[in-house]
Each structure stands twice: as C-alpha cells, then as structure tokens.
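Sample entry (108 residues):
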Amino acid sequence: MSLFMKFLPYILVMAVTTYLIRMIPLTVFRKKITSRFILSFLYYVPYAVLSAMTFPAILFGTSSIISAAAGLIAAVVAALLNRSLTTVALSACGAALLVELLLPMIPV
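Predicted structure, serialized as tokens:
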C-alpha cells in the first residue's frame, strides 16, 4: 500500500469537513444579515478564535512560565505603545530569551 493510499481517507475527510464549513453558511444565510447582535458576534469570532489558539502557545512556548510571562508582558507593553508588529514580536522574543538566560543564575 502506497503512502498516498494510506493517507487518502484522512485527506478526503478533511476535504469534506473544510467544504462543509465553508458551504453551510452560504446555504443557510441566503439573505443579508441585518441583526446587529449576529453581525457583532460574527465580527468578533476571528479575534476570539485567534486568541484562543495563540494564548496557550504564548504561555507554554518556553521552558518556563516565568519567561513566557515576561515575553507576554513585553509584547503587551510594546503594543500599548503603538509599536509595529515586528517590534512587538521582537520585544517579546527578546524578553523571553533574556529571562531564559537569567533564570539559571537565580538561586532557588
């Protein structure tokens, strides 16, 4: 059995799932959505999903929760100071790296 044939069922299931996720809203909502509640709900869904996917990765992306928290704090501060996305990411990475390097020197 070839590698392609081995993974073909998984590929087909994912293709059908992806198609259904994209097709169902188009068939259910034929008219323009006028409800302010639904519109505001749909407006915030991408931000909520992205946050739910990103936040755990932020906290558990390093070997220590302390360095992860330092990176998070540095990113929030840089973002509140209206820095660019690159600056925010670099400051978060730099803070996490610095704390990771300093942690072994701190006596417990």
